Amino acid sequence: MSDVRTPERASARPDLRGHLPVLDGVRGLAILMVLVFHFVGNTLATNWVEGAIIGVTNYGSYGVELFFVLSGFLITGILYDARNKPHYFRDFYMRRLLRIFPLYYGVLALVFFVAPLIPLLRGPTLDYLVDRQAWAWLYAVNIYIAQAGDWSFSYLDHFWSLAIEEHFYLFWPLVVFLLARRPRVLIAVSLATALGALLARLIGSLMGLGWLTTYVLTPFRLDGLALGAFLTMMARQPNGVERLVRALPWVVTIAGGLLAVSFVWTRLVSRHGLELVLPVRASLILMLLACLLVWVLIAPAQSVTSRVFRSRALVFLGTYSYGLYVYHHFISYYLSNNRTELDLARWLGSHGAAVVLQATLGASVSLAIAYLSYELFEKRFLRLKRRFKTAEDLPPDSSRLAAVSFLERRPPVQGTELATTPAFNAAADGFNRSSDGHHNVN
Predict the structure, then answer these.
(1) Cα 46 to Cα 38: distance, rounded to the nearest angstrom
(2) Contacts of the segment 82-91: beta carbons below 8 A, 24+ positions apart
(3) Distance between CA atoms of 300 and 95, rounded to whole angstroms?
(4) How many alpha carbons lie under 13 Å from residue 318 in its C-beta half-sphere?
(5) pLDDT (tens digit, 9 = 90+) per residue, 294-303?
(6) Which residues, including other chains, have CB under 8 Å from residue 150's CB and lie 6 or more apart?
(7) Residue 209, SS3?
(8) Which of 221, 306, 330, 438 gives the lowest tally of CB atoms within 10 Å of its CB?
(9) What is the pLDDT of residues 134-162, one digit of tens each?
(10) CA-based nearest residue to 319, from 74, 28, 62, 22
(11) How many CB atoms lie under 10 A from the CB of residue 185?
(12) What is the mean pLDDT of the chain?
């Protein structure tokens, strides 16, 4: 158990370019947060206990931010690893197309072409969507919502985040391609992009832009994606993993402290100045989510953290997270819009029990649909991704050896060399070659 690996022996270990369960676990947490937010956080509170619970579950909306951080981390790593590979743009965009478009446009086809043919589904809500369907086809739901100043796309409101990620995919590959030979510049650009998004939210808020506008429009929401890009590029630099690990407790302490101060101020002191506090608070939470991602990746295999994020439940949710995200809102929107938990509460005699039962059934049905969609439909397109390789054919670069050399200096944990843990091996191999970065991208 005390086998201290040399760089040569470590680099000879099996290539971990395949599936990494720990990243599915992160996706699983993200989609679980979103499910709790939509199935519980959107219900009505009938007493102070339910009010407190709903208040907490509303922070499940930050599951979307976790998706953004993970997407930026994975996508940037894939692009950087493929920087010297022929067909850089073609392979990336074809793999994106095969992963995202079949489900996205398949659902739109069902909503706009099939649903109007079913009498039971016809009505003002569907007619409204059909009349404005061009926004969805063009990945512009977020623009429509910002323009309307309200969550006005009903069953497809949640497509705002898919639009942001798609916009990111349009320009970020070019950024990485142009700056790949100067990784430090790419790191600086990633940080500048994250800071620019925060400043944009602050300036927009001070100018009187509505909260929803700065919440759904792409330029205001690039900080999560850019933070993920920063992390993956840092991890690829000499001693980069070590620097991230050293900075982790400081960032958590400072960001967590400032976040606590912001809550104390707005809850106990003054509600004035929210136009400044809320944008900063969002960035602090993003920083903590980025720290969570780093911690999950460096956690020893036998640690509680690693076991949780490699647990079957989270990995299972993460595997089907893209479909879960797309499908669940059709159910949660119908339930919350029609306040079905109130009818169920009269039957059960308990509003709390009704919410729990409704949320459980809603999430279970969503998961069943996502599972069938993935296994029977999406997989047919995913098999075609093999024709468009990304970084699999590239030899290991210096980032892998840098991570290995750092691992060698770490002491054993619970009788196991840290260099042998799946999470750190993933870091040494580029962290992200198993995934393509979207809400679920296996």
Answers:
(1) 17
(2) 82/390, 82/391, 82/394, 83/176, 83/177, 83/180, 83/181, 84/394, 85/389, 85/390, 85/391, 85/393, 85/394, 87/388, 88/173, 88/177, 89/173, 89/177, 90/388, 91/388, 91/389, 91/390
(3) 32
(4) 26
(5) 999 888 888 9
(6) 212
(7) coil
(8) 330
(9) 999 999 999 999 999 999 999 999 999 99
(10) 28
(11) 13
(12) 84
What secondary structure does DSSP assign to 64-117, as a single string?
HHHHHHHHHHHHHHHHHHTTTSTTHHHHHHHHHHHHHHHHHHHHHHIIIIIGGG
Entry pTM: 0.85
Ordered alpha helix ranges (H), 320-397: 321-337, 340-348, 351-373, 379-382
Mind listing the pLDDT tens digit for each residue in 344-400? Answer: 999 999 999 999 999 999 999 999 999 999 999 999 999 998 888 765 444 444 333
- The DSSP bridge partners found for residue 190 are none
Please tell me the predicted confidence (pLDDT) of residue 437. Answer: 53
CB 320 within 8 A of CB 439: no
Site of tokens 């992390």: 231
What span, in angstroms and rounded, lies between the C-alpha atoms of 326 and 32? Answer: 13
The number of residues in the chain equals 442
Determine the Cα–Cα distance for residues 296 and 245; give it in Å rounded to an integer. 11
What pLDDT is recorded for position 273?
62
3-state secondary structure of 400: helix
CA 8 from chain centre, in angstroms, equals 35
CB 72 within 8 A of CB 227: yes
DSSP 15: P
The listed range with the strongest mean pLDDT (50-54, 116-120, 367-371) is: 367-371
How far is residue 262's CA from residue 107's CA, in Å, rounded to a whole number?
40
Rounded to the nearest 10°, the torsion over CA 282, 287, 288, 289 is 90
Structure tokens at 172: 């970020």
